[in-house]
Design goal:
By secondary structure, this protein is α/β, with parallel strands linked by helices. It has two domains: about 350 residues, 3-Layer(aba) Sandwich (Rossmann fold); about 90 residues, no CATH class. The chain has 13 helices and 14 strands. Strands 1, 2, 3, 4, 7, 8, 9, 10, 13 and 14 form a ten-stranded mixed β-sheet that branches. Strand 1 and strand 2 form a beta hairpin. The radius of gyration is 22 Å and the shape is globular.
């Protein structure tokens, strides 16, 4: 893997200050003896299928060649009873961070129960309430939710061993070994196999796509990438890296349109009309202008500035002072500055108070912070009361334990670029031309903008013979698009169709 350094964490644990900050190296081991797996049976009553499923919660131990314990990986698996295991797909699901447990996809969209969110995707009433998930992915695939080491209940054998798992390659190897062990212990080698990851989980999934095949001979049928980042350079607009400014622009425009901040708001009757317009400008005019740097002539510069005002709702003065380059943190703070509001990074539709209006960036993310408590309370009660699993460790929903993270991927050298794993996915697809990929993007996601994902897909060098294996779908919501009701339903429909097509 041509993994390269990336200096900051982008995914669902962007506010790791919410998590504990005690250094694991100074703690005694919290690892408890591996309890027996908790196995329960539950009814499945969905529109497309009725029956029963088995839920299994607990540890699978990772050991070295001498059978010495390295770590215990916590997981929750759901399997449909009385199904033909050889034909029943199984999907391994994880979130990102690095440092996020799988609870976000588990109780947000895929599992048999979900948090009851308002239809518009705003924060639920605390402490959060679980309801039957009529859009569970269990209708078409068995599910295995994986918490990587030092997330959820997963822990290394000793705190000092955490560094053996806290890196790009280290994480891929550990999760890959877990997947192999689960297939062995559950006799599921003949099942169609899928991965589903969100945010940094898409980075992990891309790396796993080649690793699983090369190291374990596990050929995948499909991968679901939710809020995708395969090239971290696309998410880092800054001095010396101009292209991401153009890749963020369509999302800026979508957020400004949502909040009715466009100077000519009535020009765009629908979001799709706006996106089509701004995407063309970003590729054909804005990106080339940025690449000219100081050689950009004044007339063109003025025209670009005017268009940026039209697409972002920001003032001409601010655009000029920013040298035509507005980083996402400044956009989130500046768009609603007159109202002393800040827009969410994970979902630009959501606003919150600007705690320090004069600050250059937001002090918290209103599209993440209010959701953290709901996920924490519901997963803790669900595991104990419904799944009947007992563990006194802290369930790490958002964990600082995984830092520092080795973005070099364990390959050594003195790289100074960005983590890039699109080549792993490309290689896996070339080696296995049956591998299908579904990319799911939220139009208001300022953490992993959809146009950046498009850029990565069209520049990853896929052979023409497998380009048709990739499909990209969009949702009128943010990073966790499943918080919004219509997107939750659409995501289920899209994944259902995807699994059916990938297993024909």
């Amino acid at each position: 893997m041509r993994a390269k350094i990336f200096a900051s964490v982008i995914c669902i644990v962007a506010t790791c200050a919410l998590a504990q900050t005690t250094s694991p190296a100074t703690q005694k081991s919290e690892l408890t003896p591996a309890e027996k797996l908790a196995v329960t049976t539950h009814p499945l009553d969905a529109a497309s299928i009725k029956g029963e499923y088995t839920a299994t919660a607990g540890y699978i131990a990772l050991k070295d060649d001498q059978q010495k314990l390295r770590a215990n990986i916590f997981h929750v698996a759901y399997t449909l009873k009385n199904a033909n295991a050889a034909k029943r797909p199984v999907t391994f699901v994880f979130n990102g961070g690095p440092g996020a447990a799988s609870v976000w996809l588990h109780l947000g969209t895929a599992g048999p129960q979900r948090i009851d969110f308002p239809a518009d995707g705003s924060a639920p009433k605390l402490p959060g309430r679980l309801v039957k998930n009529e859009f569970t992915w269990l209708t078409h695939t068995d599910l295995v939710f994986i918490d990587p080491v030092n997330t959820g209940y997963s822990r290394p054998a000793t705190p000092e061993q955490g560094k053996e798992f806290h890196g790009v390659q280290e994480d891929i190897q550990a999760v890959g070994e877990f997947i192999r062990l689960w297939l062995v212990k559950n006799e599921r080698w003949q099942s169609p196999k899928f991965l589903a990851g969100e945010s940094y989980g898409t980075t992990r999934a891309a790396g796993l796509s080649e690793h699983l095949a090369d190291r374990h001979g596990i050929a995948l049928n499909g991968i679901v990438l939710i809020s995708t980042v395969l090239n971290f350079g696309t998410l880092t607009p800054k001095e010396g890296n101009d292209v991401p400014f153009a890749l963020y622009l369509p999302t800026y425009a979508a957020v400004a349109w949502q909040h009715k901040k466009l100077p000519d708001q009535k020009k765009y009757a629908t979001l799709d009309d706006l996106k089509k317009d701004v995407e063309k400008f970003a590729l054909d005019e804005y990106a080339p202008a940025l690449l000219k740097g100081d050689k950009l002539d004044e007339a063109t510069r003025a025209r670009i500035a005017e268009r940026l005002v039209a697409y972002t709702g920001l003032s001409r003065e601010f655009i000029e002072l920013s040298n035509l380059r507005v980083p996402p943190a400044r956009f989130m703070k500046q768009l609603m500055a007159a109202d002393r509001k800040v827009v969410g990074r994970f979902d630009g539709r959501i606003m919150g108070p600007a705690l320090d209006p004069a600050n250059d960036s937001a002090e918290f993310d209103p599209s993440l912070t209010p959701f953290y408590g709901a996920y924490t309370s519901t997963i803790n009660s669900y595991i104990r009361e419904t799944l009947k699993y007992e563990n006194d460790l802290n369930y790490e929903v958002l964990s600082n334990r995984v830092h520092p993270w080795n973005f070099q991927g364990g390959g050594g050298g003195g790289w100074s670029g960005f983590l890039y794993v699109a080549d792993d996915l490309r290689n896996a697809m070339h080696k296995n031309n049956q591998l299908k990929v579904l990319v799911c993007s939220g139009s208001f996601d300022l953490a992993t903008p959809y146009f950046a994902a498009e850029h990565t897909l069209r520049t990853m060098g896929l052979d023409k013979s497998v380009r048709g294996n990739v499909s990209h779908v969009y949702y009128p919501a943010g990073h966790m698009m499943y918080h919004e009701r219509s997107s939750l339903e659409k995501l289920h429909q899209d994944i259902t169709t995807f699994i059916e097509n990938a297993t024909k």
